[in-house]
Amino acid sequence: MKLALLNELRQQNPIVFNISNFVTVQDVANGLNALGASPIMSEEVAEADEMVGLASAVCLNLGAFTQRQVEQIETVGKLANEQHRPLVIDPVAVGAVAYRKQVATKLLQEFHPDVIRGNAGEIAALADVSWQAKGIDAGEGDGDLVAIAQACAQKLACTVILSGPTDVITDGTRTVKVMNGTPLFQVHVGSGDMLSSIVAAFCAVEDDYFEAAQTACLVFAAIGELITKKTPNLAAGSFTVQLLDGLQLTTVDEIKTVAAYQ
Ligand SMILES: Nc1ncnc2c1ncn2[C@@H]1O[C@H](COP(=O)(O)OP(=O)(O)OP(=O)(O)O)[C@@H](O)[C@H]1O
Ligand SMILES: Cc1ncsc1CCO
Ligand SMILES: [Mg+2]
Description:
Blueprint: H1 5-12, E1 15-19, H2 25-35, E2 38-41, H3 48-54, E3 57-61, H4 67-82, E4 87-90, H5 98-110, E5 115-119, H6 120-126, E6 132-134, E7 137-140, H7 145-156, E8 159-163, E9 167-170, E10 175-178, H8 191-203, H9 209-230, H10 236-249, H11 252-258
Parallel strand pairs: 1-2, 1-3, 3-4, 4-5, 5-8
Antiparallel strand pairs: 6-7, 8-9, 9-10
Bound molecules: adenosine-5'-triphosphate, 2-(4-methyl-thiazol-5-yl)-ethanol (TZE) and magnesium ion (MG).
């Protein structure tokens, strides 16, 4: 685990270009900014080439697209591949809505993601494993999460993060589990979207995207856990505020005091 990447990220302040969804765009921008990256958002295909050019990493969130946005997402994904920018995909609710899986499947034939970050319902859907996803949430299933993540990574030839109470990170061969976190992440819509964009920020400072992905998961989950230990009685609203403070202020040494992974 390369926790020193957090200091590297804060020092480099990499630009991360996001196509976010309209629900959580501000969480994503402020989360990246607080952590030490430099977010930029765009919904205009005419500036896609320049946007990818100025960014050190790209995160495409499939959370609430229109047909016009799907075209923009496809253009940006292809440009990221052409311009060798690390590309992270967040396949929101592909396990719950057949149309979304159809669109995501087509997009994944048009460009190659370096990392896909989703919950169990989303990753199972992309791996063609049976699972009862529930809207944007992971839902219910009895499959082996490590096997599902590995199947998805092998099928799509990329690093996969299957997030949840335990995050599973795999490139199909190497696998790490991050046990940190707090159930409060689930009461904040956008925790997952923030994590996906933060994964992109780590990919901007580390060429081994499996390493970048696992470090991002540990940093994000450990910061969530640390703030719940520091501040009693956190709930949906106060957790959101404390999470932003935590992203800005938490040090590598503090993360090491709770880090739990294998
Ligand atoms: N029950 C839990 N206990 C500890 N940590 C959790 C729990 N559930 C989620 N997390 C953490 O929350 C973060 C977001 O992951 P999650 O799987 O909830 O994303 P998601 O389902 O895509 O969320 P979103 O609602 O934003 O789309 C990760 O860092 C994960 O480790
Ligand atoms: C609630 C919601 N609906 C579409 S996207 C989104 C935010 C989680 O990504
Ligand atoms: Mg999500």
